[in-house]
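Predict structure. Chain length: 98.
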Amino acid sequence: MDTTYKELESVSTTKPFAILELGIIEDPEMGNKSKWIQDSLQLIENGTYSRIKAISYWNEKWNDGDDIIDLTINSSSEVMDIYKALISSPFFIPNVRY
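Prediction complete.
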């Protein structure tokens, strides 16, 4: 994220950023999905990436040949519980504010 964030900052010094397909597959061999979601949302909330003003979770599951790609937020109860706990923070608003 650091590299991409710096690239975006070089495009504009003032515009806010949105992540419109934030997601991770459910694959224990690649890492812990719950931890990844927790780390990502906490980095946004704590101001590490202060210009990120909008996120949208990519909640989808599909077959890719013999593999099932599962980005769904309810792929496990642990993932769902972590997401609910973090996204319920007052920092994350449920609707656009004008």
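Summary: The chain is about 35% helix and 20% strand.
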